[in-house]
Amino acid sequence: MLKISNSVSIPESEIEMSAIRSQGAGGQNVNKVASAVHLRFDVGASSLPDFYKRRLLTLRDKRLTKDGVIVIKSQQHRSQERNREEALSRLQQMVQAVNVLPKKRRPTRPTKGSQRRRLENKTQRSQLKSLRKKVDLE
Q: What share of the chain is helix, strand, coil (3-state, %, to 5)?
């Protein structure tokens, strides 16, 4: 069971994990041992509440496929077990992040003082630049 919150958890049966060979440098070990972990989680077929499903499927994340499957690849550690734990924690963080609602933006306007200061600064800058022009002696 992957615990998301007090009331929400994902059963291990819904998470598909497979061991694959890691990429990059690693000497002879990299060719022999499948230490990287490929995690796949189908959001649509999961037992998550509809709120979580809806928010997850609307995410603009490269780990989410068009079919609504979250794919996480973990290959940072040398052992398969630690990569497995990291992949599960990344999935947990992704689902927990969906639960936090973004704050509603309150539109603000510039103050009268800031508008006045901006206009004064513009006129000063304009006068300074006009003084740099060539003087016409005629």
A: 40, 15, 45
CATH number at residue 40: 3.30.160.20
Q: What angle do CA 114, 118, 120 make, to 5 degrees?
A: 115
On whether residue 118 sits in a domain, the answer given is no
Indicate whether 14 belongs to any domain.
Answer: yes
Domain range for 51: 2-99
CB neighbourhood size of 126 (10 A)? 10
Higher pLDDT, 3 or 66: 66
Flag whether the pTM goes above 0.70. no
pLDDT tier for residue 114 given thresholds of 50, 70 and 90: very high
